[in-house]
Specification:
Elements lengths: L1 H4 L3 E5 L5 H10 L5 E5 L11 H17 L4 E4 L2 H14 L5 E3 L1 H11 L4 E6 L1 H6 L1 H9 L4 E6 L1 H8 L6 H11 L11 E5 L7 H8 L4 E4 L1 H14 L12 E5 L3 H7 L13 E3 L4
Helix pairs in contact: 2-11, 3-4, 5-7, 5-11
Bound molecules: D-glutamic acid.
Length: 274
């Protein structure tokens, strides 16, 4: 068991946005080593069918598992929405955590009146998983799942504030956050949207709770490691290994939107999947 606990945590995402989840895990569990795999050759996942997303998620996760990991963390919302059951069936005995349940729990707890909007990719919205998970913990909630595809490219372009970002955010959010039935909670159900949190706060005001799954997911990881006696006992800072399936330079450049540290492109490994 002790040797197993020294293995890294595998984190999988369609690309670079999952670094928001890696950052939260890093902050909460600095002793854990992490292997991050971003499937940059095949992103975006958020516009693809359930079948394709599941197939991609399985391939990427098999690769992570082949390195030896003690836990698989699916940072990608779209894969968490479509592929979690398939991944759990594929790797029995390996704990597999997605971001949907932790995000849903965070929104259910943060919303004052239970009027919750989940902003996500088209494919995640189609899966219907966020409303189901929120209603599970808060049965009287009114949940609207809102596809916001433009937010993904906007964030990757570094447009996290300013007039263009504001206009697009208003286009999506104004209809649901104005009037007597206005929502009181916005859940970012996509890896990229936490980068827009300051903009959301500014546009929606202090009455609206703005939440995401990253920190709640890190808490779930911590609890699970403790429960299964898998926390790294070394007491040394963990390492981070980063893998992509294409364009490591772009990955390193765009990563600046998501993490406050520099990613050295020379340390980003490129692998092939499929
Ligand atoms: N990582 C995806 C998600 O959280 C967003 C980017 C993509 O569509 O691949 O759903």
């Amino acid at each position: 068991m002790d040797d197993f606990s020294r293995l890294p945590i595998g984190i999988f995402d369609s690309g670079v946005g999952g670094l928001t989840v890696l950052k939260a895990v890093r902050e909460r569990l600095p002793d854990e080593s992490l292997i991050y795999l971003g499937d940059t050759a095949r992103l975006p996942y958020g516009t693809k069918s359930a079948q394709t997303v599941s197939a991609y998620a399985l391939e990427a996760s098999r690769r992570l598992v082949s390195f030896g990991i003690k836990l698989l963390l699916v940072a990608d919302n779209t894969s968490s929405a479509h592929a979690l059951d398939a991944l759990r069936a594929e790797f029995p005995g390996l704990p597999v955590i997605g971001v949907v349940e932790p995000g849903a729990a965070a929104a259910a707890a943060a919303s004052a009146r239970g009027r919750i909007v989940v902003a996500a990719t088209e494919s995640t919205v189609q899966a219907g998983v966020y409303p189901r998970a929120i209603l599970h913990s808060r049965p009287n909630a009114q949940v609207t799942a809102l596809p916001c595809p433009l937010f993904v490219s906007m964030v990757e372009e570094g447009l996290t504030d300013g007039p263009i970002a504001e206009q697009i955010a208003r286009h999506y959010l104004d209809p649901l956050f104005t009037g007597p039935d206005a929502a009181d909670c916005l859940l970012s159900g996509c890896t990229h949207f936490p980068a827009l949190a300051p903009l959301f706060h500014r546009l929606l005001g202090p009455e609206v709770a703005v939440v995401d799954s990253a920190s709640t997911t890190a808490m779930v990881v911590e609890d699970l490691l403790a429960l299964r006696h898998l926390a790294n006992p070394s007491g040394q800072p963990g390492t981070i290994r980063t893998l992509v399936t294409d364009a490591p330079e772009r990955f390193a450049r765009v990563s600046r939107v998501f993490v406050p540290w520099e990613i050295d492109v020379a340390e980003v490994e490129t692998i092939e999947l499929g």
